[in-house]
From TrEMBL:
Pfam families: Na_K-ATPase. It is found in: Apical cell membrane. The chain crosses the membrane at residues 24-51. Belongs to the X(+)/potassium ATPases subunit beta family. The beta subunit of the gastric H(+)/K(+) ATPase pump which transports H(+) ions in exchange for K(+) ions across the apical membrane of parietal cells. Plays a structural and regulatory role in the assembly and membrane targeting of a functionally active pump. Within a transport cycle, the transfer of a H(+) ion across the membrane is coupled to ATP hydrolysis and is associated with a transient phosphorylation of the alpha subunit that shifts the pump conformation from inward-facing (E1) to outward-facing state (E2). Its main location: membrane. PROSITE patterns: ATPASE_NA_K_BETA_1. InterPro entries: Na/K_ATPase_sub_beta, Na/K_ATPase_sub_beta_sf. It comes from the Eukaryota. This is Potassium-transporting ATPase subunit beta.
């Protein structure tokens, strides 16, 4: 149990779960930027999809068009 508590917070090296606070900030910034880019790509793909489709034309037609 003492080893696990020392893993969570090591007062000698001032580490939280084996990482310094500076490392936690860098990791948090990296993941924040990563998720912002992922959300932007998703929003861009939705925009392109909705911009290129016509809402008044059905995409599926089960009957042949009349000549």
């Amino acid at each position: 149990m003492e080893g696990f508590r020392r893993f969570l917070w090591n007062p000698d090296t001032k580490e939280l779960m084996g990482r310094t606070p500076k490392n936690w900030v860098f990791i948090s910034l990296y993941y924040a930027a990563f998720y912002v880019v992922m959300c932007a790509l998703f929003a861009l793909s939705l925009f392109v999809l909705l911009y290129t489709t016509d809402p008044y034309t059905p995409t599926y037609q089960d009957r042949l068009k009349t000549p």
